[in-house]
Design brief:
- The protein is about 50% helix and about 25% strand.
- By secondary structure, the chain is of the alpha+beta class.
- The protein folds into two domains: about 120 residues, no CATH class; about 80 residues, Nucleic acid-binding proteins (OB fold (Dihydrolipoamide Acetyltransferase, E2P)), CATH 2.40.50.
- It has a five-stranded mixed β-barrel.
- The radius of gyration is 27 Å and the shape is elongated.
């Protein structure tokens, strides 16, 4: 049973876009294709939501366990020793690759989930969003628009408008008349190289502006 669980885990990893495979004999290839189709049919005939990555992964695991359990003898007959980690790893990878063409909807579900998690992870790692409220005291128009905001404690903050954000069009239409307006701002800090001082400087980059 441990070997079956290991095989299931390996195929799930493969469905998450492994690109490894190996050359097998024709009987092994035929078995691999049949098992891939069995797993695809098992998933497709269920009521699992393909938009729900976690539910899809769980269903994939159950279907794989079922197919591997029902085909243990055939797996052994084609020369795949399920107790041999290297052999079952390669066989599992090939099953996952075969599933990519037999049930692409499954891969789309995994792809969406993986991309969402990667995007969220990258965002969390690279951008720490901060917030403040205050009053706009100045708008400077040079190479980039800089909005100077005085917070509730009287400190001034220079906010660089460097990129598109959700309501930037609203800001674009009114930024020349913003002085004196109360705002809530989201921003993140980023270091840029300043050639004039030959060093890195930390700037505050706008992510969102809401008018009070």
């Amino acid at each position: 049973m441990n070997s079956l669980k290991k095989a299931v885990f390996l195929v799930i990893c493969c469905v998450s876009f492994s690109t490894l495979s190996f050359a097998q004999n024709k009987k092994a290839d035929a078995l691999k294709d049949r098992m891939a189709q069995e797993v695809c049919d098992c998933i497709s005939s269920s009521d699992v939501d393909f938009e729900d990555g976690e539910a899809l992964k769980l269903k994939l695991g159950l279907c794989l366990m079922q197919s591997i359990g029902e085909n243990q003898n055939q797996i052994q007959k084609v020369g795949i020793d399920i107790e041999n980690e290297e052999n079952i790893t390669r066989f599992g990878e090939d099953i996952g690759l075969a599933m990519a063409t037999k049930c692409p909807a499954v891969f789309m579900g995994f792809a969406k989930k993986e991309l969402e998690e990667k995007r969220k992870s990258n965002k969390d790692e690279e951008v720490k969003v901060q917030a403040l409220t205050g009053t706009i005291t100045k708008v400077e128009e040079e190479a980039f628009v800089t909005i100077v905001v005085k917070d509730e404690e009287g400190r001034s903050h220079n906010m660089l408008w460097l990129e598109f954000f959700e309501n930037s069009e609203e800001l674009k239409e009114n930024y020349s008349n913003l002085t004196g307006k109360d705002v809530s701002i989201e921003y993140y800090e980023k270091e840029y190289y300043n050639p004039k001082i030959e060093d890195y400087v930390k700037v505050k980059v706008l992510r969102r502006v809401d008018f009070e």
